[in-house]
Amino acid sequence: MFPIEIARMKIGKEYKPFIIAEMSGNHNQSLERALAIVDAAAKAGAHALKLQTYTADTMTLDIDEGAFHIDDPENLWRGNSLYKLYQQAYTPWEWHKPIFDRCKELGLIGFSTPFDETAVDFLESLGVPCYKVASFENTDLPLIRKVASTGKPMIISTGMATVAELDETVRVARESGCSNVILLKCTSTYPATSDNTNILTIPHMRELFECEVGLSDHTMGLGVAVASVALGATIIEKHFTLSRADGGVDSAFSMEPAEMGQLVKETERAWQALGRVAYGATEKEKASLQYRRSLFIVEDMKAGDTLNRDNLKAIRPGFGLPTKYLDVLIGKRLNQDVSKGTPVSWDIV
Which CDD domains does the UniProt record give (predicted)? Predict the structure, then answer.
C-alpha cells in the first residue's frame, strides 16, 4: 500500500510532505501570469503545480437566475452566476501544454483536476502522471470510474462527503483500476476557518480506508497545514497566487510566494520532528549530559571531616555522583583530603 510514487517522487510517512500549489483561476486569464505562477511555485520549493480542467459549458448552464445564481451573502462569489464564475476561472485548454512544459523545465510535477470525461481524455493526451478529484465531484461515480480507468494515482478531496459516500467512492475507484488512492481532508468553504477543519479526521481516515491521507487546505496561514503533518498528512495542497492584491476568483484564500516557501520549510520541519518514540539522550544530546547537576565538594576538606549540607552540594556540571545520593552521603566521613570543586565519588568516603 505504501509508499505511492508520482513521477518518481515517493509519497508516504517516510518521506517529506508533498506540497501542491493549486493555480486554479489565479492566472486571471493571462498565460504570461500563469507561467509566472509556475516559476514562483518552483522557486518557493513546491513539488507540484495543479490546474483545473473544465469550461463553463462542461460545468453548468448559462442561466443567471434561481439555483444558477449565487446570492448567499457570505459566499465569496455572490452576485455571479455559476456560468460567469467558471468563465472567469477556467484555464484555457490550449494553455495546459505550455504550463506543463514549464513545470517539467523547473522540476515541478504538473497535473490537473478534470471535471468531466472529456477533460480526462484531454489530460491523458498530455500524459499527466496523476489526477485530482475535487470535493464537489467526489460523489460523481461515473467520473471516478473514468479517472480510475487510467490506472494512475488519484488524489480525492473529501469535502462534505460522509463516511458512506467516501466508502463508495474509494471502492469504485479501486474496482475501476486505481490501486493508489490518496484522500485529502478538506473543508469546502472559501476561505475555511481553523475551527471548522477537524484534522483529527486525518489519522482516522488513514486507518479506515487504508490509504495515504493529506490535506486540501483553504485556511489562511500555516498552522493547520503544519498540525496536519503532525497527524500523519503526507500531502498538502494550497491555492497559490503571485499576490492576493492582484485579485482573482481564488486570490482571497491563496498563498503568496513567500508564504508558500514557509509552508514547504515548516511542514518539512514538522515531519522531521515526528521522528520515533524515544526516551533518553539522543546522540546529539549526550554531550549535554555533563551539564546536569551532580554532587560536588564545595570547600577544602581534610581526611576524617564529615560531609554536611554546607560542604556538599548539588551543582552543575554533572561529573559527580547523582544528586539522589545527597541524603545517603550526609554524615559520611572523608577518607582523604579533598579540595573545593572535587566531584564526589564513592571512593572518597
Answer: SAF_NeuB_like
98 upstream amide cis, omega within 30 of 0: no
Sorted by sequence, the CB contacts under 8 Å of residue 79 that are 6+ apart come out as 70, 71
For residues 34 and 61, the answer to whether their CB atoms sit within 8 Å is no
Cell match 579540595: residue? 339
Whole-number Å distance between alpha carbons of 118 and 133: 14
Measured distance CA(349)–CA(333) in Å, rounded: 6
Please choose, from the candidates 47, 11, 48, 14, the residue with its C-alpha nearest in 3D space to the C-alpha of residue 271: 14
Q: CA 227 → CA 9, 154, 222, distances in Å?
A: 23, 24, 9
Q: What is the pLDDT of residues 79-92, one digit of tens each?
A: 889 998 889 889 99
Does residue 144 sit in helix, strand or coil?
Answer: helix
DSSP 23-62: -TTTTTT-HHHHHHHHHHHHHHT-SEEEEEE--HHHH--S
| Distance in angstroms (rounded) separating the CA atoms of residues 252 and 185 | 21
Q: Which CATH number fits domain 286-348: 3.90.660.10, 3.90.1210.10, 3.90.1010.10, 3.40.50.720?
A: 3.90.1210.10
For residue 92, say if its preceding peptide bond is cis, omega within 30 degrees of 0: no
pLDDT (tens digit per residue) in 93-124: 999 999 999 999 999 999 999 999 999 999 99
Q: What is the pLDDT of residue 56?
A: 94
